[in-house]
Amino acid sequence: MIKEALNTVSDLWSLMVGLRVTKKYFLDPQVTVRYPWKAVSNIASYKGHLELVSAKAPGKPKCISCGMCALACPSNCLTVVKRKVPKPTPEQAQAEAEAKAKGEKPKDKTPKDPEQFLYDYTLCSLCGTCMENCPVGALAFTGSTYLAGYSREDFHFDLVQVLKNQAGLEGVDASVAPETAESEA
Amino acid sequence: MNAIPAELLRIIIGLVAIAVSVGLIGLVMVWVERKVAGHIQRRPGPYEVGPNGLIQPLCDALKLVGKQLFMPKGADPILFWLAPVLAFLPVLLLFLPLPVGDGLQTLDVNLGLLLILAFSGLAVLSVLLAGWASNNKYGLLGAARGVAQAVAYEIPLLLSVLAVSFVAGSLDLAHVVKLQGTWPWNWNIMTQPLAFLIYIVSALGETNRAPFDLPEAESELTAGFHTEYSGMGFGLFFLAEYANMVVVCSVATALFLGGWHGPVLPGPVWFVLKVSALMLLMVFVRWTYPRVRFDQLLVINWKWLLPLAVANLLLTAFFVKLAQFA
After folding, report:
1. Where are the beta strands (DSSP E) in A18-155?
2. Is residue B1 situated within a structural domain?
3. Which chain A positions have a beta carbon within 8 Å of B41's beta carbon?
4. Where are the domains of chain A?
């Protein structure tokens, strides 16, 4: 009986404690940011869509077109289009033939970086399996929080193109040989 | 030409003032509620429309007015539309006997308290009609809860009010206020602290405010008795809730907190200040405590509030009688 009464008193006191907590929060500064006018800056941990990591030369991806990412992707949202072996110019063909004649091993001139790296963000679940499976660490998540578009196609990216645009190489045709792009950069 | 009776004129002017202030209070309280909720959750609350979001409730009200009024299939059309009107109309009546200042009262009747208590009971009827006529299970459940709750909480509310009017020897709110003094220690809350506590808790239950908002418990009953109401049908219920809050806070101010009495500032200002403080307390309570379970709600009432109120009333009556002999 007495214990019950004491319990009631402590219960009532807990109500006061609750009010004190909300009063404290009421007076504390706000922790949210008024979004369209201000944005949070601490989004380093945010996972945005994928991007290709550029090699030393800006605009040129580290990617070696091995296709491990596309193979590992559970949502099948990646397609790596390998670059075709460029047709050797007559001089190159001649040099190659000479080298062959000398008994040297022909140098592999095939560029490793992909022609296109198609990425369907609408399917991606940001699991990161592609990054784990990449042998050269050519993939990363962006911190791009505020991505929005009007159509589904706005989220179908060619990451090679995205990387080039990032490097300030807009207007550079994707079909242009990477050597040219490098020299321009 | 016969002159218009002064009393009639007084009531008409009073009713217009009441209608205007109820609308204004509704808008301001929606803003206060959302601001307090925001700040307690450490976000700014409404901010974009007008300075500090002050115009936001007006925009919301306009949106509500512009919305289509829907009635569910199989609903009772007369009762369905009667309910929100019935929720709102008696509220205007409740403001009539409230003494805002010395002599500043629309209707000076010696049974003012009784008038308020009687007509506030009509709110339950509107809840019941709304829930029943909607032909909706959530509505019906909300209505059933609302009735059980209102019937239960009305009793301790009445008893706590009665204790004060025993001391004052009157059911006239203005008279009760006149008997109190300027300073807090001259107020009835000093002689009747338990009655005040019981009154506030029961008032929360009567106005269906959290933590006793079971008739409209969002997480269980979508919106309870007003689930099926759209547009101004819902708007009237909403407005009635805030108006009811003002009424219970005003009655508490008049009965326990010395009404218009206060130092320096004029009477009506003190009255408004005290009512605002109580309203703010109610808002804080809503955003602090979780909703009680229905059995807990009834246990609080029948096992605690009611016996305490009865004991308080008996003690009060005993001391009043003693004072008469002394």
Report:
1. 50-52, 78-81, 116-120, 139-141
2. no
3. 25
4. 1-30, 50-184
Q: Is the pLDDT of residue A110 over 80?
A: no
Residue of chain B nearest A22, judged by CA positions? B40
User: Is B181 within the bounds of a domain?
Assistant: yes
For B48, which residue in chain A has the nearest alpha carbon?
A34
Give the pLDDT confidence score for residue A162 in this predicted structure.
Answer: 81
pLDDT band (50, 70, 90) for residue B301? confident
Q: Which of B39, B44, B47 lies nearest to residue A26, judging by beta carbons? A: B39
Average pLDDT, integer, range B269-286: 89
Given an 8 Å threshold on Cβ–Cβ distance, is A29 in contact with B287?
no
- Residue B241 corresponds to which tokens in the numbers above? 């809730």
Is A31–B42 a contact, with Cβ atoms under 8 angstroms apart? yes
ipTM of the complex in this document: 0.71
Q: What letter does residue A104 receive in the DSSP assignment?
A: P
| The length of chain A, given as a count of residues | 185
Does B284 sit within 8 Å of A31, measured CB to CB?
Answer: no
Hunting for tokens 């022909």 — which residue is that? A106
B73 contacts chain A (CB < 8 A): no
Write out pLDDT tens, residues B141-170.
Answer: 888 888 888 888 888 988 898 888 888 888
Out of A25, A31, A34, the one facing B40 most closely (by C-beta) is A25
Whole-angstrom distance, CA of residue B268 vs CA of residue B262: 10
* Residue B42 contacts A, CB cutoff 8 Å: yes
Residue B105 confidence (pLDDT) above 80: no
Q: Which domain holds residue B71?
A: 6-325
| Domain tally, chain B | 1
Average pLDDT of chain B to the nearest whole number: 84
Closest CA in chain B for residue A23:
B40
Residue B132 lies in a domain: yes
**Cα of A20 to nearest chain B Cα, Å:** 9
Q: Side chain identity at A36, as an amino acid letter?
A: P
Residue B179 has a CB neighbour count (10 Å cut-off) of 15
1.25.40, 3.40.50, 3.50.4, 3.30.70: CATH of A50-184: 3.30.70
Per-residue model confidence as pLDDT tens digits over A59-104: 788 888 888 888 888 988 888 888 877 777 777 778 777 777 777 7
CB contact under 8 A, B287 and A22: yes
